[in-house]
């Protein structure tokens, strides 16, 4: 695969697309369809990147909250809580694992893309993972974010990586 140009497809998934708004549980049927689609695209020669929100949405159910917090420290605590993050990544890993597709989690902030050196490091990491046939799953790194970015939306920026 190295050296060849492939179409890179970025699949952007907001929390409301993959987490039930009432129960705050991940929507397994939706996740399964996304995984099957991503693997088919990959097997057909495309490079696939998934940009996924959802950890905070899952955390709402685990912490008995009705809506996303507005203040940064509250977002960071909910977004980095071990159980919701692990639960969501574990689901991705299990679903992709059933189809024998390796994945990698990449956590970014706006600063990681804005700083030229960090941008180049991220670009190199993406390139290497994609060359290895790995599907990266990208999310905002809530632990070190400096603003509440409910619309992090790095998809256009990722297309340039």
What does this structure look like?
This protein is an alpha/beta fold and 161 residues long. It is 50% helix and 15% strand. It is built from 8 helices and 4 strands, in the order E-H-H-E-H-H-H-E-H-H-E-H. The chain has helices at 15-18, 28-43, 55-62, 72-80, 82-98, 110-114, 116-131, 155-160, and strands spanning 8-13, 47-52, 103-108, 135-140. The chain has a 4-stranded parallel sheet, sandwiched between helices. Helix 2 (28-43) crosses helix 5 (82-98) and helix 3 crosses helix 5 (82-98). The protein starts with 7 loop residues before the first strand and ends with a helix.
Describe how the helices and strands are arranged.
Blueprint: E1 8-13, H1 15-18, H2 28-43, E2 47-52, H3 55-62, H4 72-80, H5 82-98, E3 103-108, H6 110-114, H7 116-131, E4 135-140, H8 155-160
Parallel strand pairs: 1-2, 2-4, 3-4
Could you tell me the number of beta strands?
Answer: 4
Estimated share of beta-strand residues: 5-15%
Order of strands side by side in the largest beta sheet?
1-2-4-3
Number of distinct helices: 8
Unreliable stretches covering 5 or more consecutive residues: 75-82, 145-155
């Amino acid at each position: 695969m190295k050296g060849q140009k492939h179409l890179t497809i970025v699949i952007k998934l907001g929390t409301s697309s993959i987490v039930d708004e009432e129960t705050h549980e991940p929507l397994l049927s939706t996740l399964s369809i996304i995984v099957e689609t991503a693997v088919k695209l990959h097997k057909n020669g495309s490079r696939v990147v998934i940009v996924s929100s959802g950890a905070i949405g899952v955390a709402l159910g685990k912490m008995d909250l009705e809506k996303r917090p507005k203040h940064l420290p509250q977002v960071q605590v909910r977004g980095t809580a071990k159980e919701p993050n692990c639960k969501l990544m574990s689901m991705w890993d299990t679903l992709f694992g059933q189809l024998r597709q390796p994945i990698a989690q990449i956590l970014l902030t706006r600063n990681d893309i804005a700083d030229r050196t960090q941008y180049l490091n991220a670009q190199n990491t993406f390139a290497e993972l994609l060359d290895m046939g790995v599907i990266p799953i990208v999310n905002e790194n809530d632990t070190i974010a400096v603003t509440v970015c409910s619309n992090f939306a790095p998809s256009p920026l990722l297309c340039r990586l």
